[in-house]
Amino acid sequence: MELNQGADLTCLGNEPPLQQFSLLPQFFSLNSASELSHQLLQLSPAALAYVGDAVYELFIRTYYLLPPKRLQLYHNQVVAQVRAERQAQHLQSLQLHLTSEELEVVRRGRNAASKRSKRADPNIYQQATGLEALLGYLYIKDAQRLTQLLALLQLESSASSS
User: Fold this and answer.
1) Residue 31's pLDDT is what?
2) Are 153 and 90 in contact (CB under 8 A)?
3) Are 64 and 153 in contact (CB under 8 A)?
4) Does the residue 94 lie in any domain?
5) What CATH number is attached to the domain comprising 107?
6) What percentage of residues in the chain have a pLDDT greater than 90?
7) What DSSP string runs through 104-135?
């Protein structure tokens, strides 16, 4: 993957810059957006959640990089955000901003959450998997929309946690 030339860097308050990347993997060689949507619908929601989990964790890790601090504090801040309970809260806060297509991806992700978490309530785990599926879907389909939604997340200030 490579950066778009002239990637849009926007800062929201104390938040780190959000960059748009050319996120579409090369194996998705498609002629149209509808062809991409069709191929994405062929992927299992669990596969989308698998990618979305990585996208979400990388976003959270990047968010807490500044100001510089000890690795243990980075770790503690990230772990607090990547827990299923926090992901479920994030999904709830985004619900009103989602399109019908995105809500369908979330629904499919929730329904695919068959693995039982030892720690989280099954409903919470389903919500978290729904968010991850949405993020994986948008990572592949629409990086600009992914960036918009991630900017809406209410994260604890990294400065107040140090």
Assistant:
1) 58
2) yes
3) no
4) yes
5) 1.10.1520.10
6) 57
7) HHHHHHHHH--SPPSSS-HHHHHHHHHHHHHH
Within 3-99, where are the H helices? 33-42, 45-63, 71-82, 84-94
Report the percent of the chain where pLDDT is more than 70: 72
Q: Which amino acid is at 69?
A: K
pTM of structure: 0.78
Determine which one of 8, 53, 121, 142 is catalytic. Answer: 53
What digits encode the pLDDT tens for the residues 23-80?
455 555 555 667 777 777 788 999 999 999 999 999 999 999 888 999 999 999 999 9
Can 142 be counted among the known catalytic residues?
Answer: no
In which element (H, E) is residue 22 found? Answer: strand 21-22
Instruction: Examine residue 120 and state whether it is found in any structural domain, yes or no.
Output: yes
- Tally the C-alpha atoms within 13 A of residue 108's C-alpha that lie toward its C-beta: 21
Which domain does 132 fall in, by range? Answer: 45-152
Residue 32 lies in a domain: no
* Nearest-angstrom CA–CA distance, 65 and 16: 8
Residue 15 belongs to some domain of the structure: no
The alpha carbon of residue 63 and the mean position of all alpha carbons in its chain are separated, in whole angstroms, by 13
DSSP state of 151: H
**Count of the separate structural domains present in the chain:** 1
Q: Give SS3 for 66.
A: coil
